[in-house]
Design brief:
Blueprint lengths: L2 H22 L2 H27 L6 H15 L4 H12 L6
């Protein structure tokens, strides 16, 4: 697989873990984090669009960071911090 494919796969896994926590959050948390959650969802879609164009170079360290983020979220990391970290990594490849 290409680095871009690996990045997209890692991003989808991370977003899925983040979204599971978001869906389980209370209404106050959801209201507070809705914009960040939606930004993250849109970033995954934009990454997939970039895959079609195949016009980006991926830093393998970012794939490692996203995989580590997924593990942190699955082990109970704070949702807000996870969304922020996810967007900080993905913004290197697509506008968020």
């Amino acid at each position: 697989m290409s680095d871009l494919t690996n990045l997209i796969s890692a991003a989808i896994s991370a977003f899925s873990a983040l979204d599971a926590h978001y869906q389980a959050a209370n209404i106050t948390q959801k209201t507070t984090l809705a914009a960040s959650r939606n930004q993250a969802a849109n970033a995954v879609i934009k990454l997939r669009d970039r895959q079609v164009a195949q016009d980006i170079t991926v830093n393998p360290a970012d794939i490692t960071k996203i995989n580590a983020l997924t593990a942190k979220v699955q082990n109970g990391a704070a949702l807000q911090a996870g969304l922020t970290e996810f967007l900080d990594i993905v913004k290197n490849y697509v506008p968020v």
